[in-house]
Amino acid sequence: MFEDETIDVACPQCGYKNSILVRELEESAETHFVCRKCQAGVRIEADEFKHRLDQVLKEVEDLEREAARDAKRPARRPRKGDFQI
Asked: Are 20 and 45 in contact (CB under 8 A)?
């Protein structure tokens, strides 16, 4: 779902925010990249990111299920007391 999205990762040396594809973090336990500003090598352990992404995906699935369930229910007719003048 989020494979083509990017996240910004700050370089530990210069603080420059490098954009990394979520797909790269999902594919392996570690991701390596070179900072675009200072050329420092950066290593990211993706375990915590994967854990948080799994939580977000679960929440999205729950919201989709709830929305589908609500869509099946007939709409409640407004009552006289629902309106304020």
From this structure: no
Q: Checking phi first, is residue 15 left (phi over 0); if not, alpha (psi -120 to 50) or beta?
A: left
* Length of the chain in terms of residues written: 85
DSSP-derived pairing of the beta strands 17-21 and 41-45: unpaired
Give the separation between CA 37 and CA 31, rounded to whole angstroms: 18
pLDDT above 90 as % of the chain: 33
Reported as a single tens digit per residue, the pLDDT across 17-35 is 999 888 887 777 788 889 9
Beta carbons of 35 and 14 less than 8 angstroms apart? yes
Q: Where are the alpha helices (DSSP H) in 1-85?
A: 22-27, 47-72
Residue type, 27: E
What's the sign of the alpha-carbon dihedral 47, 50, 56, 59?
Answer: negative
Per DSSP bridges, beta strands 17-21 and 30-34 are unpaired
Please tell me the pTM assigned to this model.
Answer: 0.55
